[in-house]
Amino acid sequence: MFRFGNIEYLNLLFTIPVLLILLALVLYTRRRALERYGSREILSELMPESAPGKPVLKFVLIVLTLIFLILGVARPQFGSKLREVKREGVEIIIALDVSNSMLAEDITPNRLERAKQSISKLVDRLVNDRIGLIVFAGDPYIQVPITTDYVSVKLFLESINTEIVPKQGTAIGAAIEMGMRSFTPAENSSKALIVITDGENHEDDAVEAARMAAEKGITVHTIGIGSPEGSPIPVPGPGGQNTYRKDRQGQVVISKLNERMLQEIAAAGNGVYIRSTDSRVGLNIIFDEINKMEKQEMDAKIYSDFDERFQYLFGAGLILLLIEFFTLERKNRWLNKIRIFER
Q: In what order do the strands lie in the sheet with 76-89?
């Protein structure tokens, strides 16, 4: 495993483009100034020892030295040993609806994007808990297996959209059943399944699935994202202008939140139902409920020993600095006398 011990110093790399822009300005100004005195051919005769490329080379060497020093100060480290640690936490799986109705904009910017933002903030609050991610529409799919790698969860979360599943619909029951199978079988930890959906076009017996999950010790919470009044579903059109999804009769489809169904699912799963609004999605409230659950001891493998590698970068920077120091800005008269390929 690779990491930086002082990752904040990598922000200094933003100075490199500024230095390159300064170099370009200096070279441009220098060339314009020389052109005022005469043509390039005449000036080269008057300054036979001038080497225009040498100052550029020296500057590039200094920039490369600076890059190596910044990377060295950031302390690159490689994990060399895995060890098992005991942690107390719970297992959480989030089942996120990615059907087309989640594109409705009654929640800003839309239902799906707002849910993703809230999940990302929830991941930031996790410490010792395990989390997994399921996406579903007509069928459910495991996006992230149960893990403590929160960085990977957020990375996969960014790529989620309505096109990630081939079959449309809202199979909440199938998502709950997959969630039950996705928890760690051997662990006796507290388990919570959070379903985020608008509940529309419900296709299977999700209430029965939630009841089965509760019998296995899995708490099922639901978050209703959307509004009971509903909103049309945008469809990208030509020229970047959106149209709205229509039914077979040509009427604009209005997607409405099915609160009653989600309340029944939460009740059957011994969980709570939260309706999202523009000001909150509800994950924080459910997370507070999860924190009340009994924490169980769980095994986890982490990298415990990290080998420092900054010395190699400092060494490379020192070599480049020495090369820059011994690089003259003028032509070397002794080297110019060496003419191997001339008779």
A: 2-4, 76-89, 296-308
